[in-house]
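Lab notebook, page 48
Experiment: co-folding of the full assembly
Goal: obtain a model of how the components sit together before planning crosslinking
Operator: M.T.
Materials (sequences as entered):
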Amino acid sequence: MDDIISLQVGLDARSYDIKIGNNLIANAGDLLGDIIAGRQAVIVCDSNVASLYLDALASSLARVTRRCDRIIVPAGETSKNMKVLADLLNDILDFGVDRGLVIVALGGGVIGDLVGFAAASLMRGVDFVQIPTSLLAQVDSSVGGKTGVNAPRGKNLIGAFYQPRAVLADTATLATLPPRELRAGYAEVAKYGLLGDSSFFAWLEDNGKAVLDLEPQALNHAIMTSCAAKARIVEADEREAKQRALLNLGHTFAHAFEVEANYDGRLLHGEAVAAGIGVAFALSVRMGLCKQGDLDRVKAHLKGQKLPGDNRELIAGNAAAERLIAHMQNDKKVLDGKMRFILVKGIGEAFVASDVPLEFVHETLEGLD
Ligand code: NAD
Ligand code: GLY
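Observation: model returned without errors.
Model output:
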């Protein structure tokens, strides 16, 4: 095992460590020993990740647990629903578990969100551990305790804040992640620089290609900086009363683009976020809040990483601005009937705005390249 980077999310009695490193899955029994030794565990994994990493994880955990079972759910966003959740809870109960159970989520953000919510609900809450295997999950979804499933009326509408007991991000798993999924996860990495850390964004401008090429030093630095940024925000505002909303930079627009694309694989979540970030910068420029030069830098960087900057054809076909705005009004980020946008005064300077005149949003969407 190479060196392991360790960070803490400080939430008093619910604090936990994020460990980042190469080849952690094979050593998960030792690395998680203080949490799982002598306990019953169930690993939940998706069908793609199962064939790659489930055996290695199960044999490592079996060395320290009292008993270790496995459940595989179909890969993809469509597994994040109430039916799969109910089946999962029943399958776990069928193993004859008690409240000493630890559930281990092995996979991308879909598995992390689904399994985290299962852990929050089972017997009113059992321990769970995140072992994220996609870049998006390693830098974002495995940290911070947002868990849940989608409802017919929209994404992530049913869920709970429920923190894991530990996060193990094994960077070796990214070697098998499809390149398009890797780039989509990179959008969330860029997001941390753009919302609050201009020097990290400048570093990404120089090193973003090395991150996508999975060069170990660059990759570790990008994951560690992203997790540290998220940890500080979650510590300050776990339930998104204030600054946690900044993590939604680009997401209000992304949500509309994803609804428009019907979640049919044309647009991955991270691709929609990249496009949404470009539009959030464009709106900020239109409102006179941000320099055109900063928007140009953002678009150039995302394009260089083969992510959509704000290209209308790519992000939403020929969706009319009104239709996109209607989708945004259905988003769960709407508060007391008001749409909230994360706008920017420049790179690294995001803020929450709930008083954005709709004509600016309309003009920005109409004006996309
Ligand atoms: P995902 O879990 O669907 O994973 C993407 C694809 O990559 C899947 O096909 C998966 O099987 C595959 N995969 C994962 N790891 C792999 C590996 N190492 N090798 C090969 N294939 C691998 O999607 P995602 O992009 O990881 O996560 C998106 C989900 O995360 C969405 O549901 C989104 O709402 C959620 N999310 C949650 C939060 C949060 O804070 N909870 C934040 C951002 C996104
Ligand atoms: N991904 C947004 C959040 O965790 O708040």
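Interpretation: The radius of gyration is 20 Å.
Next step: discuss with group before ordering constructs.
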